[in-house]
């Protein structure tokens, strides 16, 4: 079965891979590199976009890159052939085929000449209805179907009747889908509802400066990040929104910021995965926030086993080790103790924490640990990690007590004037206070600064 990658599309259209990536992004298609696999649905969407691009100068620019005059070969069952970009953005005319005598084919043998291609076997397409992304059964279904299609065929996840999108399920589900897509599996998401599109379920947003600045809402959206800088930028965006959205008790925002920096960075530090996925959701009525971060890397057990100090026998044993003080800490920088600190913060706040990696699962609720060793794995070399935690915004937290040292509050420092006062510049706030909504956000921001112990 043919696999179409970004660099192959670029070659067929006579442009650079970077240009194809930009056009896919404008189409709402998530592709991170030249080796990313593009589904037929997204490929056709790209072709329609390229046909519509006819500003002055574009034709000559594409032609200068050496636009091909041959369509990229595709099997009949995969739809229409690709149309390479030409100066007129019209379908290329294939060169005439010289007439030649038809070769004789023995009786009962299939013809294999260009005029008699071998018969095409119809591709098997499975349509799987997804009714929600709110339970572990939903997640198991998606992982099972992704594994099945990796052996061949195509699967379409139909979201037309889907209701309920929880970060703890939606984030790892999308991580699984993107992982198998990168491996070449043909997986599509169809009939996404308005809510699913707003949450970027079909195509997660990359945490680039442009996307973060353009987004009018950072919460309840699925984000992908690919390096430490994007992880830090995403954390800053989450925190900037949270400070304006809801008034939090003392220490909650400071603790949340520390946890986000630590946990998002863990993906780049320990998982050996080149991408992480995250969502932060605020439930105003119940006064709690929910965070989920997922990756498809080597998993906690293998990460710990790479050190000569630890030999966890099972994935659950690895999780119990990882949340202990000092196990993952870099003593030189006093960093990397994120899971231990997160556990202490959740215990103080009477929140909830769930960690899944490989076959292991650990749950902290009502300050009581439970666990199991019966989860599904992504693959032999990819055990992944899913971290989901909830905090109550009306329950105070002491980050210093949780970590046994008092970290510097960089946000408060950024507000401090030369006279030692904390100053919020109205002029520097997006939207200022020119509307009721903006004024309300500014008031919440002021109260949150005061609640941080100023």
Shape: globular
Biggest sheet, in brief? 8 strands, mixed
Q: pLDDT under 50 segments (min length 5)?
A: 56-116
Beginning-to-end CA distance, first to last residue: 63 Å
How are strands sequenced across the largest beta sheet? 4-5-6-7-11-8-9-10
Q: Round the mean pLDDT to the nearest integer and report it.
A: 79
- Strands, total number: 11
Strand content: 5-15%
* Element string (H = helix, E = strand): HHHHEHEHEHEHEHHEEHHHEEEEHHH
In which range does the helix fraction lie?
25-40%
Radius of gyration: 26 Å
Structural class given helices, strands, pairing? alpha/beta
Number of distinct helices: 16
Please provide a written account of the structure.
The protein is α/β, with parallel strands linked by helices and 454 residues long. The chain has 16 helices and eleven strands. The strands form two sheets. Strands 4-5-6-7-11-8-9-10 form an eight-stranded mixed β-sheet, with helices on both faces. The chain has a three-stranded parallel β-sheet with strand order 1-2-3, covered by helices on one side. A hairpin with a 2-residue loop joins strand 9 (360-365) and strand 10. Helix 1 crosses helix 2 (17-26) and helix 5 runs parallel beside helix 6. The protein is globular, with a radius of gyration of 26 Å. It starts with 5 loop residues before the first helix and ends with a helix.
């Amino acid at each position: 079965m043919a696999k179409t990658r970004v660099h192959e599309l670029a070659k067929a259209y006579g442009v650079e891979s970077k240009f194809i990536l930009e056009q896919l992004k404008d189409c709402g298609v998530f592709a991170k590199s030249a080796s990313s696999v593009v589904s037929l649905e997204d490929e056709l969407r790209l072709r329609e976009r390229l046909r519509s691009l006819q500003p002055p100068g574009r034709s000559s620019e594409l032609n200068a890159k050496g636009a091909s005059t041959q369509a990229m070969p595709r099997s009949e069952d995969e739809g229409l052939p690709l149309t390479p970009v030409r100066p007129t953005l019209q379908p290329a005319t294939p060169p005439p085929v010289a007439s030649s005598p038809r070769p004789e084919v023995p009786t009962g043998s299939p013809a294999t000449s260009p005029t008699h291609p071998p018969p095409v076997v119809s591709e098997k397409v499975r349509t799987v209805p997804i009714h929600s992304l709110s339970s572990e059964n939903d997640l198991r279904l998606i992982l099972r179907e992704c594994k099945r299609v990796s052996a061949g065929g195509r699967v379409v996840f139909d979201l037309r009747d889907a209701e309920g999108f929880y970060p703890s399920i939606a984030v790892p589900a999308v991580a699984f889908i993107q992982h198998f897509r990168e491996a070449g599996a043909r997986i599509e998401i169809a009939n996404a509802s308005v809510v699913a599109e707003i949450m970027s379920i079909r195509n997660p947003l990359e945490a680039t400066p442009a996307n973060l600045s353009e987004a009018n809402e950072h919460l309840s959206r699925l984000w992908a990040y690919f390096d430490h800088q994007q992880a830090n930028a995403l954390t800053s965006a989450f925190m900037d929104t949270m400070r304006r959205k809801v008034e939090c008790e003392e220490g909650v925002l400071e603790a949340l910021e520390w946890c986000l920096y630590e946990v998002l960075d863990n993906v780049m530090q320990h998982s050996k995965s080149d991408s992480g996925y995250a969502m932060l959701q605020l439930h105003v009525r119940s006064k709690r926030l929910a965070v989920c971060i997922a990756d498809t890397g080597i998993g906690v057990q293998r990460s710990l086993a790479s050190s000569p100090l630890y030999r966890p026998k099972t994935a659950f044993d690895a999780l119990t080790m990882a949340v202990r003080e000092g196990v993952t800490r870099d003593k030189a920088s006093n960093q990397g103790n994120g899971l231990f600190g997160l556990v202490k913060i959740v215990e103080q706040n009477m929140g909830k924490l769930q960690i899944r990696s490989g076959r292991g699962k650990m749950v902290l609720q009502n300050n009581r640990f439970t666990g199991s060793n019966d989860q599904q794995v992504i693959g032999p070399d990819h055990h992944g990690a899913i971290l989901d935690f909830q905090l109550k915004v009306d329950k105070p937290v002491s980050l210093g007590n949780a970590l046994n040292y008092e970290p510097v509050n960089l946000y408060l420092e950024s507000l401090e004037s030369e006279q030692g006062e904390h100053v919020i510049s109205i002029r520097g706030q997006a939207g200022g206070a020119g509307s009721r909504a903006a004024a309300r956000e500014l008031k919440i921001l002021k109260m949150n600064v005061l609640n941080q112990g100023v």
